[in-house]
Amino acid sequence: MKCRRCGEVAVIDLPRHNAAFCKPCFLEYFARQVQQAISKFRMFARHHRVMVAVSGGKDSLALWHWLASHGQPTVGLYIDLGIAEYSRVSRERCEAFAQRMGLQLEVVDVRQETGFSTPALAARVRRTTCSVCGLVKRYFTNRTARRLQVAAVATGHNLDDEASTLLGNVLHWQMGYLARQHPVLPAADGLVRRVKPLFTLTERETLAYCLLQGIDFLEEECPHARGATSILYKELLNRLELISPGTKHQFLLGFLRRARPSFSQAEPPPELGACRECGEPSTAEVCAYCRMLSGARRADDAFATKENKGGIT
Ligand code: AMP
Ligand code: ZN
Question: Which ligand lies nearest the alpha carbon of 139?
Fold first, then answer.
């Protein structure tokens, strides 16, 4: 297999582009995809400081590595969700990466902030760990981004993530989610701008980037691994991609170009005020995070009173 651009021995084939690349040409292809996403969607300017939300996995570390090594001012954010061994190891990966690259990493520890780990919060409010995890991550990401006064928050969402989310949203006709599914969510009333610079690159391509750049990332999925459905959607799209390369890209980019504008017209973004308790943006008087936290504290108190001997695990 030879590189399509220079004829050297290729290290990766990309059927959807009908191409194969050697290491330098793959890295150039990767850079072009990220640069195009940033400039075409006006994600941020070269001098802006961007906060990269990192999980310790391949996508977010590849993103942070790429931005930092292309001269973008960055700060990393890791949210320690308190998910036993998984959080300990992923935090270690982020800290080691930041140290090796000489980059600033902010760590928010959910247990220190709330007094509970994420699974313990979920058990007390009788919700799934994944839904509480999503809420907690959105809340602390925005709060930290405001505190650090960054221009934007960048996440490592890739083409597989975005296409499978789109498939789920279409199958369930989630009108509000469809209206807001976009590589850029503009800043609004206390919400910091959110961007996804890797949204045109596949999981396989971000993996190749990490391997070629020697980035030590965490391979394991979270033990609470988001509903089996999102994995199933990714598998289904991979099967379609195998038969018809380029399907994921066409599905997502076609939606963004042709269909999304009508969804956003039909579903304007909700009005946001400031939460009475914490000041973060909210559609209600008290934000979802504060309501969840007081619910968890009430559950804990009720249990302690009943049993008179401590709380639930
Ligand atoms: P996920 O929802 O786990 O697929 O993650 C999507 C993106 O959210 C990742 O690419 C990261 O940018 C960000 N992210 C996930 N987990 C964390 C975390 N614990 N701390 C900070 N950012 C995270
Ligand atoms: Zn609040």
Answer: 2
Within 8 A by CB and 6+ apart from 261, the residues are none
Minimal-distance CA residue to ligand 1 atom 17: 55
Q: Which residues form the pocket of ligand 1, taking CB atoms under 6 Å from any ligand atom?
A: 53-55, 59-60, 77-79, 81, 137, 155-157, 161
For residues 226 and 180, is the Cβ–Cβ distance under 8 A?
no
Domains, the chain, ordered by start: 44-272 (3.40.50.620)
Nearest CA residue ID for atom 23, ligand 1: 55
Which residues neighbour 250 within 8 Å (Cβ) at sequence distance 6 or greater?
Answer: none
Residue by residue, pLDDT tens for the chain (313 residues) are 899 999 999 999 999 999 999 999 999 999 999 999 999 999 999 999 999 999 999 999 999 999 999 999 999 999 999 999 999 999 999 999 999 999 999 999 999 999 999 999 999 999 999 999 999 999 999 999 999 999 999 999 999 999 999 999 999 999 999 999 999 999 998 999 999 999 999 999 999 999 999 999 999 888 887 667 888 999 999 999 999 999 999 999 999 999 999 999 988 888 999 999 999 999 999 999 999 999 999 998 887 777 666 555 5
Containing 28, the helix (H) or strand (E) segment is helix 23-40
How far apart CA 281 and CA 278 sit, in angstroms, is: 9
Question: What is the C-alpha to C-alpha distance for residues 206 and 201, in angstroms, rounded to an integer?
Answer: 7
Number of H helices, E strands in the chain: 13, 10
Nearest CA to ligand 1 atom 12: 155
Substitution site in 81, 137, 233 for ligand 1 pocket (most atoms within 8 Å of beta carbon): 137
pTM: 0.95
